[in-house]
Amino acid sequence: MLTGIVPASPTYWAGEAGDSAFSPGTRLEPGTLLPGPTLAWYHPSVPREEPIPFDYWVVYEDGDLIVVDKPHFLPTTSNGRIVRETLQTRLRVDFGEDEIVPLHRLDRLTAGLVLCSRNPRTRPCYQRLFQDRVVVKHYQARVAAPFSFDGTVRLGMRRVRGERQVRVDPSGTLTQTRVLAQGTLVDVWPLTGHTHQIRVVLNHLGHPIMGDDTYPVDRGLALYDFSSPLQLAHIAMSFTDPISGRERVFKRVHGERF
């Protein structure tokens, strides 16, 4: 809420509120005495960021959805450290649409499919798919040493403020992950959603993912070190479309590419 006199900087626009004296989107002129607390918004100043030299591929689009293949190192949305160089910002700029919103998030270091909404009217229907955990998500990871495993891993996980690693903790949030390994290529289907879930599970099994800068040893954050991509990708997803009722299946267009 903005109160008193509109400052000279930054530039403010009126927000949408039923009791506002200004129409939504109206520029609030500097020096204007506001009649009361006024919902307003502004574009914060964002420092120049180093470009991330990798881009997304469009896998599919229609009037409601855009499915893209996100590269390693590009954040899905702003993470506080990177604001401009994100998948969401690039999509909004490239398509000229301010309403594009990723419906789920991949870690910055993870590549693969991201389902995005471009239609605010149908967005809640697709968001509910992820809330209800009915989207089947298939990942592949590469590990250093071959091993065999076929089963569902159930682990308690807990994040601790100030720590990059997620801890395995029986009293933490219960996660479930289907793992199928025959050699060094591992297929994974997370049945729950938790930060670093797949990375924690494979490290717990004694086979950390190649290129992982956090497990088993936290090597520290290096935002612009692109030399060793995490060998983890979201390669396929499927769900029943809540609008059409059709089964939707999306796969990476480039096949196995970590």
From TrEMBL:
It comes from the Bacteria. The keyword Iron-sulfur does not apply. SUPFAM superfamilies: Pseudouridine synthase (SSF55120). It catalyses: a uridine in RNA = a pseudouridine in RNA. Keywords: Isomerase. One of its GO terms (biological process) is enzyme-directed rRNA pseudouridine synthesis. GO terms for molecular function: catalytic activity, acting on RNA; pseudouridine synthase activity; RNA binding. Residues 64-204 form the Pseudouridine synthase RsuA/RluA-like domain. This is RNA pseudouridylate synthase. It comes from Corynebacterium minutissimum.
